[in-house]
Amino acid sequence: MEVGGQLPAEVVLAERMEVSRTIVRSALHKLDAENLILWEGRRKTLVKRPDKRHRLSQSESLPTGEELERRFLEWILRFDVPAGTSLNIAQLSRKFGVPAHSLQAFLSGLSRFGLVERRAKGGWILSGFTAEFAVELSDFRLVLEMNAVRHLLSLPEDHQIWGKLTEIRKEHEDLRRDLKDRYHDFSTLDEKFHTTINSVVKNRFVLEAQKLISLIFHYHYMWDKRDEQERNAAAIEEHLDWIDAMLAQDRARSEEAALNHLRRSKETLLASLKNHKLG
Q1: DSSP secondary structure code for residue 6 in this structure
Q2: Can you give the pLDDT at residue 228?
Q3: Distance between CA atoms of 26 and 39, rounded to whole angstroms?
């Protein structure tokens, strides 16, 4: 640009740079503070060309793959994005603060789980989080976690998992004691508990699947608010039975407790999905 030239409107800059308007506005404030532009209402006039001293050091500010996955799934689950929704790559890349090519790669990986599909003529469509998907996900979760329990019980007594289970048991007891005021905290503790159990299995495919499973079950607690405190209280007791059985290294009891909790979780997931859709 030449000095005296006018910068385009914020919406034009956002589209050109493939970022949100919030980021554009932040950049404009910076340019104005550096006296590089004169910002008067809608007019943004270049008063001085920037040079090397105005450049910022490059920072790793883009979200990681895990952060992108969490943001995307939160968007689907919390805001009830319906099945069949076309996914606009340009809009979503701005929404999640990632380059379009990164989002394309992410969706390609996510398509393996059946949540999104690539259209024959290009582009992506959201398959949706349906009851059928919830059943398949729950059944797969049961297979993974039962395997993790068997693996965990084979570990030596000096393994760090036993200390972690003891700590998590205390967290459950603390939450149970203050449940009336803190019952909303259970979803986070539930995620931590199941992640800890699965951490003993060093398998890249299990790890990738567990991320998706963990997020789905974490967010379903936000859907159905009816009897939330009572349901969380029951789940805490199920967790404690399961933890005690593992700490006692009782395989039969551990598997029975795990099956009991995972089957109950499947029921509450389906119920919360139904009530969420009805609501």
Answers
A1: B
A2: 76
A3: 13
Distance CA 233, CA 182 (A): 11
Q: Per the confidence metrics, is the pTM higher than 0.85?
A: no
d(CA 99, CA 259): 42
Question: What per-residue confidence (pLDDT) applies to 211?
Answer: 72
In whole angstroms, give the CA distance from residue 85 to residue 261: 34
Ramachandran sector of residue 128 (left: φ over 0; alpha: ψ -120 to 50; beta: rest): left
CA 26 to each of CA 30, 58, 67: distance values in angstroms, whole numbers, following the listed order: 6, 16, 22
What pLDDT sits at residue 62? 60
Largest CA distance in the chain: 78
User: pLDDT under 70 in the chain at which residues?
Assistant: 57-63, 65, 77-80, 215, 218-226, 274-279
CA 123 to chain centre: 23
Residues 198, 204, 208, 210: what is their CA dihedral angle, to the nearest 10 degrees?
Answer: -10
**How far is residue 219's CA from residue 206's CA, in Å, rounded to a whole number?**
20
Return the pLDDT at 278: 45
**Amino acid occupying residue 35:** N
Query: Distance (Å, rounded) from C-alpha 245 to C-alpha 255?
Result: 9
Written as one letter, the residue type at 58 is: Q
Query: Which among 76, 67, 74 has a CA at the least distance from the CA of 127?
Result: 76
CA distance 42 to 276: 43
Residues 6+ apart with CB under 8 A from 162: 155, 247
Round to whole Å and give the CA distance between 198 and 201: 6
Which residue has tokens 């049961």? Answer: 142
For residue 43, the SS3 value is strand
Q: How far is the C-alpha of 135 from the C-alpha of 137, rounded, in Å?
A: 5
The set of residues, in sequence order, having a beta carbon less than 8 Å from that of 153 and lying 6+ positions away, is 246, 249, 251, 254
